[in-house]
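call fold(seq) -> tokens
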Amino acid sequence: MFCGIALYVVSNVLKPYQDANVELDQKKRILATFVKLDDTWDKKKIEQVYSDRVKGFVINYKGELQKDKQVKDIDIEKEHKLAPEKRLYKVFEVSDEKNKNKIQYYVFAGSGKGLWDKISTYFALKSDLNTFEGVVFDHKAETPGLGARIKDDEAVYSRYAGKTIFEGDKLEPVIMMKGEGNDYSGNSHAVDGMSGATKTAIGVNEMMVEYLKAYENFIKSKKNK
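ret:
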């Protein structure tokens, strides 16, 4: 019994620190969609830039603002277990570095299933809400050197930059193609794939398509203003 009580106490003492680390990691991943992070980005700089430029809010499937919800209370993985129409979604507006009143990027969150376990993403669209600025992926158990490249290999996730999600008014999600070493520079809706990681690429595609469709109402409401 004593050991159980001790573990309970330790767990409760450590939880605020664990929660703070999770929140800091989220902020870091959001920033990484539109700036290149290096060794100079310590905790203080991450917190300062995030505070200065990023504003998060919650929407529903219809794209409607949920004023009674905060992004810190939304677990994208738990929401993913619900039907898309019943989920709540996180959106982050990023202001221009020199003009706080101008939105430069919108960052969106998504969750999915890779080869072995959950994968997730944050992706940034430029203010036109059509063009990718950057994407970051994360995973829980993809194969090192293969599927894990979605997180670890800049050559993979950087391929999304400059690609677009609309063809006119029609949503045309960007697809990671099968195989690697092909040139898709002339295709606005395709990126090169990953050799030996077809299942992970399929998971990435399913996640990106699912969440771009989920955010479509919000995106179109902003584009039409």
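The helical segments are 2-31, 43-53, 76-80, 149-152, 154-157, 198-223.
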